[in-house]
Design goal:
This is TetR/AcrR family transcriptional regulator. Keywords: DNA-binding, Repressor, Transcription, Transcription regulation. Pfam families: TetR_C_13 (PF16925), TetR_N (PF00440). InterPro entries: DNA-bd_HTH_TetR-type_CS, Homeodomain-like_sf, HTH_TetR, Tet_transcr_reg_TetR-rel_C_sf, TetR_C. About 65% of the residues lie in helices and about 0% in strands. The chain has about 210 residues and is an all-alpha fold. It is elongated.
Length: about 210
């Protein structure tokens, strides 16, 4: 992931006239709509219905659909990156950290309390050219995750846990790719056991000293 202080800062609330609804609760519900349908497929009527507000209230509170989406993604990313950092901090080794990440991804991607898969992976998959800058924002967040994975692997190399010739960048890209693929699998099948098996298979690629 990118610099945590840059990408995980919570969005600032806009000043002005007090809102007649719970902005944070409405944003959470909007996040779930984008998560289920994707950025472009989520209609204004679906968003306002889920949020329990009118279109004018949406525009007054969030600006427009794009800004609402970016703020919803920021909310999602903040929670995700905080959880990932906590997981990495608690794991005794780099290998354990990556294994826990893959296993938690399998569980989170198939959790029945929210749409399947990862919002940051799936929300802009089929967007038109007009949404290119929104897709770029999602790419940055996926890169942010990969950077965090790389940093944890580098720590393992420096501590002598992994072979000295290990390429942290390539290994991080591999596991980031596995995680993104697991998100797609979750959307297609929702099969948690299948995702856990993929996680186990991916860990067999972990470098070991000869």
């Amino acid at each position: 992931m990118e610099n945590k202080s840059e990408k995980c800062d919570k969005p600032r609330k806009k000043g002005g006239r007090p809102l007649s609804f719970d902005r944070e609760a409405a944003l959470e519900r909007a996040m779930l709509v984008f998560w289920r349908y994707g950025y472009e497929a989520a209609s204004l009527s679906e968003l306002t219905s889920a949020m329990g507000i009118t279109p004018p209230s949406l525009y007054a509170a969030f600006g427009d659909k794009e800004q609402l989406f970016l703020e919803a993604v920021e909310r999602y990313s903040t929670k995700s990156c905080d959880a990932l950092q906590c997981l990495f901090d608690e794991a005794p080794t780099a290998r354990d950290a990556i294994e826990r990440l893959l296993q938690s991804s399998a569980v989170d991607n198939t959790c029945p309390s929210h749409p399947p898969g990862c919002l940051v992976v799936t929300a802009t998959t089929n967007c038109s050219a007009s949404a290119e800058h929104v897709q770029t924002a999602m790419t940055e967040r996926r890169d942010n995750v990969e950077t965090m994975i790389k940093t944890r692997i580098e720590q393992g190399v420096n501590e002598g846990e992994l072979p000295a010739g290990t390429d942290p960048g390539t290994l991080a890209s591999f596991y980031a790719t596995v995680i993104q693929g697991m998100s797609t699998q979750a959307r297609d099948t929702g099969d948690r056991d299948k995702l856990l098996a993929i996680a186990a298979a991916a860990m067999r690629a972990w470098p070991v000293s000869k």
